[in-house]
Amino acid sequence: MRNRFLFLIFLLICCAKPLGAQDRFDSGPYKGFSRSPDEHIIVELEQPFRVRGIRGVIRDPSGSPLPKTVFEIRKDSSGKVWGAVADRHGRFWIPGIPPGTYSFKATLRSFQSVAGKITVSARAHRKSAIELILPLGV
């Protein structure tokens, strides 16, 4: 019994991903973004968001907040990815993002991911924010 227990611990140490580690897209339009284990559909928004800073809220189709949603942005020219996790109210914030155009992706297990573009600009409305609705997964 003890040997079996030690073997299981060995497997967990050697084979398991570190806590918080996520699969990421290796190539294509979502390169660098997190990939949910059950992700099948990514909804692409046509209209970009125009904001002063990266902040917003994520909800389900009924309007309820979606805590623990991973919200990421990527500067396409450099490939650098920044991210945040939505709080219990579905709110997220990524401080200190310079003006420019970014790709984004919001991901939560059992929901369809949503992706699109964001333009960060000092000329955007002062109270502008990103508001997303994640459709239920299929």
The assigned structural class equals mainly beta
How is the biggest beta sheet arranged? 6 strands, mixed
- Please write the string of helix (H) and strand (E) elements: HEEEEEEEEEEE
Could you tell me the radius of gyration in angstroms?
18 Å
Structural account:
Mean pLDDT is 83; it is low at 5-21. The longest helix has 14 residues, at 2-15. The strands form 3 sheets. Strands 3, 4, 6, 7, 9 and 10 form a 6-stranded mixed beta sheet that branches. A 3-stranded mixed beta sheet has the order 8-5-11, with no helix packed on it. It has a two-stranded antiparallel ribbon with strand order 1-2. It is built from 1 helix and 11 strands; from the N terminus they run H-E-E-E-E-E-E-E-E-E-E-E. The chain has one helix at residues 2-15; strands at 23-24, 34-35, 42-44, 49-51, 54-59, 70-74, 81-85, 91-94, 100-107, 113-120, 130-133. Strand 6 and strand 7 (81-85) form a beta hairpin. It has 138 residues and is mostly beta strands.
